[in-house]
């Protein structure tokens, strides 16, 4: 797996990257729900990410 060095400058860009990543994982059969620890070494903070599926609001689609 290779990671592109893409600079993100806004929450909107971060959301778009996360959306694309989750869609690719889901389409590949990965169970994306649950908690994920993201350990990043000493130079960056660590994060805990929790993903839950939400009910679609049919009126907004």
Automatic annotation (TrEMBL):
This is Uncharacterized protein.
